[in-house]
Amino acid sequence: MSQSRYLAKQAPQPQVPDQYYSEQNLPASILSDFQQAAAETEFEVTANTRRSYQTSFAIFQGYCEHHGINALPADPRAVISFIGQQKELFQENGCQLSRQTLTTRLAAIRHYHIEAGFKSPTDHPMLLRIMRGLSRNHYRVQADYDQQPIMYHELAMLLECVDKQKHPLLACRDRALLTLGFQGGFRRSELAGMQVQHVSFLRDKLRVRLPYSKSNQAGQKEWKDLPFAEPMACGEFIKAWLDISQITSGHLFRSISRDGQQLRPYQLKDATDPASRNSGFLNGDDVYRTVRKYCKQAGLGEQWFGAHSLRSGCVTQLHENDKDTLYIMGRTGHTDPRSLRHYLKPK
Description:
The protein is built from 13 helices and three strands.
């Protein structure tokens, strides 16, 4: 036997434990520390993802209750049957549920099983084969269009409609919202969550810091520089909004009273008070409705546009302006150039 083989044979082999070591009795003195650490799992997924999971899992629970089977833990065959029922559903627009929607249903089932300490039935080989087949099934009736991009021409039409607003405060806010969303290629959740302290006015550009984003869940340093010299630049509109609203801290885009004369009272949820809630600032749905409202007024056809049209338009317009892929990724925050293929429309 060679020396190397002999040494390898004599070396201690790593032991893989079947289960974690468990104390028979944990002292009560560490209970509060354990609960403090466990509370951080609330932020493991975003609030929007958690709501989406709750909705999807409730649908799965309803299916299981209807057929008298267990939802948690669930038999893989129950999950397969559920997907079989869901993939045949037709929505009001005459289309079947997309593969992405079905994937979200499965992600919710997986999330709640792992959270409860059960093996996820969504890992079953048969289910994986079914989802691969769904992605290649060309015969399903699915929506075949995305939200159309808002580019310079469309944005100019929207701003003309904003200018017709009879309430100066509302018009000022919406100009800032639309132009910032377009120039920065922001998602609606990023616009809704933006804080005044995230915005800095430099000599020739507006710098916007993003503490968190869809592609930056861990809170790494991320910012966008938006030049004042670009067409449809947002800098002057953001400054005008801050001047007229007198906002100095907190959320950038606030709710406005029905008469359009003043900001609504601003309040953030108090963690120590279960009855408290967030109020006084826009959420993602408000951003979506704002874009759709002005698209309808401009005669663009509101069914083709939404909040994502601002982000899509940013990518498409920069592509039209002959900016390279790295420049566009720096503006939008994409981390994979392949993700841009969906946005880059032919010139």
